[in-house]
Amino acid sequence: MWSRCALQIGRQIIAGGTKIKRFDKYPFEVAIIDVKSDITYCGGMIISSKFILTAAHCITKEMAKTKSICHTRNMPKKCFKPPKTIKIGYINHPTKDVMHKMEVLRIIPHPHHNAKTYTNDIALIELKTPIVCLDLPRPICLPAKNLSKVGNELIIVGWRYSEVEELSGQSALTEGKVVQVPSSNCSYIEIPTNRIVCARGIKSKQASCQGNSGSGILILHDMNYYVLGVTSIGPVNCKSGLPNAYTDVYANIDWIKSVVKDLPTI
Protein backbone atom coordinates (compact mmCIF):
# COMPACT_ATOMS: atom_id res chain seq x y z
CA MET A 1 0.00 0.00 0.00
CA TRP A 2 1.35 3.42 -0.98
CA SER A 3 1.43 6.13 1.67
CA ARG A 4 1.98 9.01 -0.78
CA CYS A 5 0.72 9.92 -4.23
CA ALA A 6 2.69 11.11 -7.25
CA LEU A 7 5.29 13.83 -6.95
CA GLN A 8 6.44 15.62 -10.08
CA ILE A 9 9.15 13.56 -11.77
CA GLY A 10 11.30 14.33 -14.80
CA ARG A 11 11.52 17.31 -17.11
CA GLN A 12 8.92 20.03 -17.66
CA ILE A 13 5.94 19.52 -19.94
CA ILE A 14 6.43 20.05 -23.68
CA ALA A 15 3.51 21.77 -25.41
CA GLY A 16 1.76 19.79 -28.10
CA GLY A 17 1.08 16.12 -28.58
CA THR A 18 4.54 14.98 -27.57
CA LYS A 19 5.47 11.33 -27.22
CA ILE A 20 6.84 10.62 -23.76
CA LYS A 21 10.29 9.02 -23.67
CA ARG A 22 10.63 8.67 -19.90
CA PHE A 23 7.78 6.63 -18.50
CA ASP A 24 8.41 7.71 -14.90
CA LYS A 25 7.06 11.15 -15.81
CA TYR A 26 3.45 10.02 -15.38
CA PRO A 27 3.87 6.88 -13.23
CA PHE A 28 0.14 6.63 -12.55
CA GLU A 29 -1.00 6.28 -16.17
CA VAL A 30 -2.28 2.86 -17.27
CA ALA A 31 -3.65 1.37 -20.47
CA ILE A 32 -6.97 -0.48 -20.68
CA ILE A 33 -6.45 -3.39 -23.06
CA ASP A 34 -8.96 -5.58 -24.87
CA VAL A 35 -7.97 -9.18 -24.06
CA LYS A 36 -9.09 -10.65 -27.38
CA SER A 37 -7.36 -8.16 -29.69
CA ASP A 38 -4.58 -7.03 -27.31
CA ILE A 39 -5.33 -3.45 -28.36
CA THR A 40 -5.20 -0.47 -26.00
CA TYR A 41 -8.51 1.34 -26.40
CA CYS A 42 -8.70 3.54 -23.28
CA GLY A 43 -6.59 4.86 -20.46
CA GLY A 44 -6.88 5.13 -16.72
CA MET A 45 -4.98 6.20 -13.61
CA ILE A 46 -3.74 4.29 -10.59
CA ILE A 47 -5.31 5.74 -7.42
CA SER A 48 -4.36 2.95 -4.98
CA SER A 49 -2.61 -0.42 -5.03
CA LYS A 50 -5.74 -2.18 -6.33
CA PHE A 51 -7.89 0.49 -7.98
CA ILE A 52 -7.84 2.27 -11.33
CA LEU A 53 -9.85 5.41 -12.11
CA THR A 54 -11.26 5.65 -15.64
CA ALA A 55 -14.31 6.71 -17.66
CA ALA A 56 -17.50 4.65 -17.38
CA HIS A 57 -17.89 4.56 -21.17
CA CYS A 58 -14.56 2.69 -21.33
CA ILE A 59 -16.16 -0.29 -19.60
CA THR A 60 -19.54 -0.27 -21.35
CA LYS A 61 -20.40 -2.59 -24.20
CA GLU A 62 -20.74 -1.09 -27.67
CA MET A 63 -24.45 -1.90 -27.70
CA ALA A 64 -25.00 0.34 -24.65
CA LYS A 65 -25.01 3.44 -26.88
CA THR A 66 -28.16 2.32 -28.69
CA LYS A 67 -30.06 0.20 -26.14
CA SER A 68 -32.60 2.21 -24.14
CA ILE A 69 -32.13 -0.06 -21.12
CA CYS A 70 -28.63 1.44 -20.79
CA HIS A 71 -29.88 5.03 -20.96
CA THR A 72 -31.04 5.26 -17.36
CA ARG A 73 -29.52 5.46 -13.90
CA ASN A 74 -28.48 2.15 -12.36
CA MET A 75 -27.66 0.63 -15.75
CA PRO A 76 -27.98 -3.19 -15.64
CA LYS A 77 -24.90 -5.38 -15.55
CA LYS A 78 -25.38 -6.54 -19.14
CA CYS A 79 -24.58 -3.01 -20.36
CA PHE A 80 -20.99 -3.38 -19.13
CA LYS A 81 -18.02 -5.44 -20.26
CA PRO A 82 -17.24 -8.57 -18.22
CA PRO A 83 -14.02 -8.10 -16.16
CA LYS A 84 -12.36 -11.05 -17.93
CA THR A 85 -12.49 -9.21 -21.28
CA ILE A 86 -10.10 -6.43 -20.23
CA LYS A 87 -6.64 -6.16 -18.71
CA ILE A 88 -4.74 -3.25 -17.19
CA GLY A 89 -1.27 -2.47 -18.49
CA TYR A 90 1.35 -0.28 -16.89
CA ILE A 91 5.03 0.43 -17.48
CA ASN A 92 7.31 -0.32 -14.54
CA HIS A 93 10.63 0.84 -16.01
CA PRO A 94 11.58 4.50 -16.55
CA THR A 95 12.82 4.07 -20.14
CA LYS A 96 11.62 0.68 -21.45
CA ASP A 97 8.26 0.69 -23.25
CA VAL A 98 7.20 -2.75 -21.99
CA MET A 99 3.71 -3.29 -20.58
CA HIS A 100 3.16 -5.25 -17.39
CA LYS A 101 -0.40 -6.58 -17.61
CA MET A 102 -2.77 -7.37 -14.75
CA GLU A 103 -6.13 -9.12 -14.55
CA VAL A 104 -9.32 -7.37 -13.46
CA LEU A 105 -11.44 -8.54 -10.52
CA ARG A 106 -14.45 -6.26 -11.00
CA ILE A 107 -15.62 -3.07 -12.64
CA ILE A 108 -17.51 -0.43 -10.66
CA PRO A 109 -19.28 2.18 -12.78
CA HIS A 110 -20.78 5.26 -11.18
CA PRO A 111 -24.32 4.18 -10.18
CA HIS A 112 -25.86 7.14 -12.02
CA HIS A 113 -23.94 6.82 -15.28
CA ASN A 114 -26.01 7.10 -18.44
CA ALA A 115 -24.50 5.60 -21.61
CA LYS A 116 -26.44 7.91 -23.92
CA THR A 117 -25.83 11.27 -22.25
CA TYR A 118 -22.39 10.48 -20.73
CA THR A 119 -23.67 11.77 -17.39
CA ASN A 120 -21.40 10.71 -14.48
CA ASP A 121 -18.91 9.22 -16.94
CA ILE A 122 -16.58 7.83 -14.30
CA ALA A 123 -15.74 4.31 -13.08
CA LEU A 124 -13.37 2.29 -10.93
CA ILE A 125 -11.61 -0.93 -11.87
CA GLU A 126 -10.46 -3.28 -9.11
CA LEU A 127 -7.45 -5.49 -9.87
CA LYS A 128 -7.22 -9.15 -8.87
CA THR A 129 -3.86 -8.57 -7.19
CA PRO A 130 -2.29 -5.37 -5.83
CA ILE A 131 0.34 -3.45 -7.76
CA VAL A 132 3.72 -3.80 -6.07
CA CYS A 133 4.56 -0.58 -4.24
CA LEU A 134 7.82 0.53 -5.86
CA ASP A 135 9.02 3.89 -7.22
CA LEU A 136 7.30 3.05 -10.50
CA PRO A 137 4.35 2.94 -10.91
CA ARG A 138 2.78 5.33 -8.39
CA PRO A 139 -0.78 6.57 -7.76
CA ILE A 140 -2.11 9.95 -8.90
CA CYS A 141 -3.22 12.42 -6.22
CA LEU A 142 -6.95 13.08 -5.86
CA PRO A 143 -7.99 16.65 -5.04
CA ALA A 144 -8.82 17.29 -1.37
CA LYS A 145 -10.35 20.62 -2.39
CA ASN A 146 -11.75 22.08 -5.57
CA LEU A 147 -8.73 23.10 -7.68
CA SER A 148 -10.87 23.73 -10.75
CA LYS A 149 -10.69 27.31 -12.05
CA VAL A 150 -11.20 28.91 -15.45
CA GLY A 151 -7.80 29.87 -16.87
CA ASN A 152 -5.91 26.95 -15.31
CA GLU A 153 -3.14 25.58 -17.53
CA LEU A 154 -3.65 21.83 -17.44
CA ILE A 155 -1.98 18.71 -18.80
CA ILE A 156 -3.61 15.96 -20.83
CA VAL A 157 -2.04 12.52 -20.99
CA GLY A 158 -3.28 9.56 -22.98
CA TRP A 159 -2.60 6.49 -25.09
CA ARG A 160 -3.35 7.94 -28.50
CA TYR A 161 -2.27 11.28 -29.84
CA SER A 162 -3.17 14.71 -28.53
CA GLU A 163 -1.60 16.18 -31.70
CA VAL A 164 -4.29 15.58 -34.31
CA GLU A 165 -1.88 15.53 -37.24
CA GLU A 166 -0.28 12.41 -35.76
CA LEU A 167 -3.44 10.29 -35.57
CA SER A 168 -2.14 7.04 -37.05
CA GLY A 169 -3.77 4.34 -34.94
CA GLN A 170 -0.60 3.55 -32.99
CA SER A 171 -0.68 3.30 -29.21
CA ALA A 172 1.73 5.72 -27.58
CA LEU A 173 1.69 7.60 -24.29
CA THR A 174 1.53 11.30 -25.16
CA GLU A 175 1.10 14.62 -23.40
CA GLY A 176 -0.22 18.07 -24.25
CA LYS A 177 -1.22 21.38 -22.70
CA VAL A 178 -4.76 22.70 -22.49
CA VAL A 179 -6.47 25.60 -20.74
CA GLN A 180 -9.61 25.35 -18.62
CA VAL A 181 -12.57 27.30 -20.02
CA PRO A 182 -16.09 27.88 -18.64
CA SER A 183 -18.14 24.68 -18.49
CA SER A 184 -20.77 26.36 -20.64
CA ASN A 185 -18.30 26.17 -23.55
CA CYS A 186 -18.93 22.41 -23.58
CA SER A 187 -22.71 22.79 -23.85
CA TYR A 188 -22.52 21.89 -27.56
CA ILE A 189 -21.97 18.27 -26.46
CA GLU A 190 -25.40 18.22 -24.77
CA ILE A 191 -23.95 16.86 -21.55
CA PRO A 192 -24.86 18.35 -18.13
CA THR A 193 -22.15 20.94 -17.47
CA ASN A 194 -22.36 21.17 -13.66
CA ARG A 195 -20.16 18.09 -13.09
CA ILE A 196 -17.51 18.50 -15.78
CA VAL A 197 -14.24 20.29 -16.41
CA CYS A 198 -14.18 21.90 -19.86
CA ALA A 199 -10.84 22.58 -21.58
CA ARG A 200 -9.45 23.40 -25.01
CA GLY A 201 -5.96 23.28 -26.48
CA ILE A 202 -3.61 26.19 -25.90
CA LYS A 203 -2.92 25.73 -29.61
CA SER A 204 -6.06 25.05 -31.66
CA LYS A 205 -4.89 21.59 -32.76
CA GLN A 206 -4.33 20.26 -29.24
CA ALA A 207 -7.11 18.01 -28.02
CA SER A 208 -7.94 14.72 -26.36
CA CYS A 209 -8.59 12.34 -29.25
CA GLN A 210 -9.33 8.68 -29.88
CA GLY A 211 -7.86 6.39 -27.24
CA ASN A 212 -7.40 9.16 -24.65
CA SER A 213 -10.75 8.34 -23.03
CA GLY A 214 -10.44 7.42 -19.36
CA SER A 215 -7.08 9.15 -18.95
CA GLY A 216 -6.73 12.27 -16.88
CA ILE A 217 -6.61 16.01 -17.20
CA LEU A 218 -4.03 17.04 -14.61
CA ILE A 219 -2.85 20.07 -12.70
CA LEU A 220 0.57 20.49 -11.11
CA HIS A 221 -0.04 21.95 -7.64
CA ASP A 222 2.61 22.23 -4.91
CA MET A 223 4.89 19.79 -6.81
CA ASN A 224 2.19 17.10 -6.93
CA TYR A 225 0.12 15.97 -9.90
CA TYR A 226 -3.62 16.06 -9.19
CA VAL A 227 -6.30 14.69 -11.48
CA LEU A 228 -9.02 17.29 -12.05
CA GLY A 229 -11.02 15.28 -14.54
CA VAL A 230 -11.37 12.03 -16.45
CA THR A 231 -11.38 12.31 -20.25
CA SER A 232 -14.98 11.81 -21.30
CA ILE A 233 -16.26 13.23 -24.58
CA GLY A 234 -15.42 15.82 -27.19
CA PRO A 235 -16.05 16.77 -30.81
CA VAL A 236 -16.13 13.98 -33.40
CA ASN A 237 -13.52 15.87 -35.41
CA CYS A 238 -10.34 16.43 -33.38
CA LYS A 239 -9.38 19.27 -35.75
CA SER A 240 -12.45 21.33 -34.87
CA GLY A 241 -10.76 23.32 -32.09
CA LEU A 242 -13.82 22.79 -29.87
CA PRO A 243 -13.22 22.02 -26.18
CA ASN A 244 -13.41 18.59 -24.56
CA ALA A 245 -15.45 17.58 -21.52
CA TYR A 246 -13.80 15.80 -18.58
CA THR A 247 -15.78 14.27 -15.72
CA ASP A 248 -15.07 16.35 -12.60
CA VAL A 249 -13.20 14.15 -10.10
CA TYR A 250 -13.75 16.43 -7.10
CA ALA A 251 -17.52 16.35 -7.72
CA ASN A 252 -17.30 12.55 -7.42
CA ILE A 253 -14.77 12.31 -4.59
CA ASP A 254 -17.26 11.07 -1.98
CA TRP A 255 -18.31 8.20 -4.26
CA ILE A 256 -14.66 7.27 -4.91
CA LYS A 257 -13.88 7.27 -1.18
CA SER A 258 -16.93 5.10 -0.48
CA VAL A 259 -15.40 2.37 -2.67
CA VAL A 260 -11.63 2.79 -2.21
CA LYS A 261 -10.56 2.64 1.43
CA ASP A 262 -6.76 2.81 1.02
CA LEU A 263 -6.27 6.07 -0.87
CA PRO A 264 -2.74 7.45 -0.36
CA THR A 265 -2.25 10.87 1.21
CA ILE A 266 -0.34 13.87 -0.08
Automatic annotation (TrEMBL):
CDD domains (UniProt xref): Tryp_SPc (cd00190)
Coiled coil ranges: none
InterPro entries for the chain: Peptidase_S1_PA (IPR009003), Peptidase_S1_PA_chymotrypsin (IPR043504), Peptidase_S1A (IPR001314), Ser/Thr_Proteases_Immune/Dev (IPR051487), Trypsin_dom (IPR001254), TRYPSIN_HIS (IPR018114)
Limits of the Peptidase S1 domain: 14-261
One Pfam assignment: Trypsin
The organism's taxonomic lineage, starting at the top: Eukaryota, Metazoa, Ecdysozoa, Arthropoda, Chelicerata
Family label: Belongs to the peptidase S1 family. CLIP subfamily.
UniProt KW keywords: Disulfide bond
Gene from which this protein is expressed: Proc
Protein name: Vitamin K-dependent protein C
A single GO BP: proteolysis
